[in-house]
Design goal:
The chain is an alpha+beta fold. It has a single domain, classed as (Glycosyl)asparaginase (Glutamine Phosphoribosylpyrophosphate, subunit 1, domain 1). It has eight helices and 13 strands. The strands form two sheets. The protein has an eight-stranded mixed beta sheet. Strands 7-8-9-10-13 form a five-stranded mixed beta sheet, covered by helices on one side. Strand 7 and strand 8 form a beta hairpin. Helix 6 crosses helix 8. It is globular. It starts with a strand and ends with a strand.
């Protein structure tokens, strides 16, 4: 089992079942469900950072390497476990994707309850972001709790009322790729997407071939980080193709990171903010990869932020390992 760092709790809960002969798709989905139900994980499910309207919209997808079938939902609201709905799309329809209000209706038809996903803490985070968007509107951030100001705070100098993530820090996801004892592979991904995004924005997590991909003849891969970069590189599918051609998981991941860095240089001609002062991409992206021979890797563009990944194997059990950075 190989995945993002927040996959570790679910991996610990599911690894023994996998070793006992459990199906890899079941394991990958159950790992994601742990994060989806965790209100303290603001990148997935309950308590996820909302869009610019204050609404939590979720994306999820799963894929079975044995059948090569997949299912995905995106921009789905008020459903606690979108990864389960993604599996329903795969198993109960002839489609690969259902997005928006149609995904919500489909989930409700199959018994998923309507759930409020915005928590008090993420609502407060959204309000801080909204209050500090402009110094030309009428919104004011709350005063510091330690004192009562004699006059209203200046819009130009808002008090520090908590962490508000910057543009390229507002993403997060859970991914899990699983290789079973019989050699079958499966993968699953779930996310609340880019924080404060334009309503309806869909990242790579719900796009098979970008945010995740697996093939029983090659291996499995998935990503977290800037979804747009993964989409433009068809990243997970390209990694699996590298595995098919004989590359190791580490080399396959680093090759796709090289392509992403190169394509970002081209994009920066019209979108300069994509490059930092050092001329390198201003965002980060990670890939989690497992081959059919059991070799695995976790790679990252910079190593900033999410510097570790979760892995579980029979020899050492579930644990965190450091990601291999492309830029050192």
């Amino acid at each position: 089992m190989v995945g993002s760092a927040n996959a570790l709790p679910g991996s610990r809960a599911q690894f023994e079942r996998l070793l006992a002969g459990g199906a890899p798709l079941d394991a990958a989905i159950e790992v994601c469900k742990v994060a989806e139900a965790d209100p303290d994980d603001t990148s997935v499910g309950l308590g996820g950072i909302p869009n610019e309207d204050g609404v939590v919209q979720l994306d999820a997808a799963c894929m079975d390497g044995r059948t090569h079938n997949s299912g995905a939902v995106a921009a789905i609201e008020n459903i606690l476990h979108p990864i389960e709905v993604a599996r329903l799309v795969m198993e109960r329809t002839d489609h690969c994707q259902i997005f928006g209000v149609g995904a919500y209706r489909f989930a409700r038809e199959h018994g998923h309850p309507h759930t409020e996903l915005l928590t008090d803490s993420t609502r407060a985070l959204w309000l801080r972001w909204k209050e500090n968007l402009s110094d030309q509107d009428d919104r004011l951030p709350p005063p510091p709790k330690s004192e009562t100001p004699k006059s209203a705070p200046s819009k130009g100098e808002p008090p520090k009322t908590g962490f508000v993530p910057t543009r390229f820090e507002r993403h997060g996801t859970i991914h899990c790729s699983v290789l079973a004892l019989d050699g079958e592979v499966a993968c699953a991904t779930s996310t609340s997407g880019l924080g404060f995004k334009i309503p309806g924005r869909v990242g790579d997590s719900a796009i098979v071939g970008a945010g995740l991909y697996c093939d029983a003849e090659a291996g499995s891969a998935g990503s977290t980080g800037r979804g747009e970069a993964s989409i433009l590189a068809c990243a997970s599918a390209m990694i699996v193709e590298q595995l098919r051609g004989g590359s190791s998981p580490k080399d396959a991941g680093l090759e796709i990171l090289r392509r992403i860095a190169k394509q970002t240089e081209r994009q920066a001609r019209w979108q300069p903010a994509l490059l930092g002062p050092d001329g390198r991409p201003a965002f980060d992206i990670q890939f989690y990869i497992v081959g059919l021979d059991g070799r695995f890797a976790g790679v990252t563009l910079h190593g900033r932020g999410q510097g570790r990944f979760a892995v579980a194997e029979p020899a050492a059990g579930p644990r965190l390992e450091p990601l291999e950075p492309f830029f050192t």
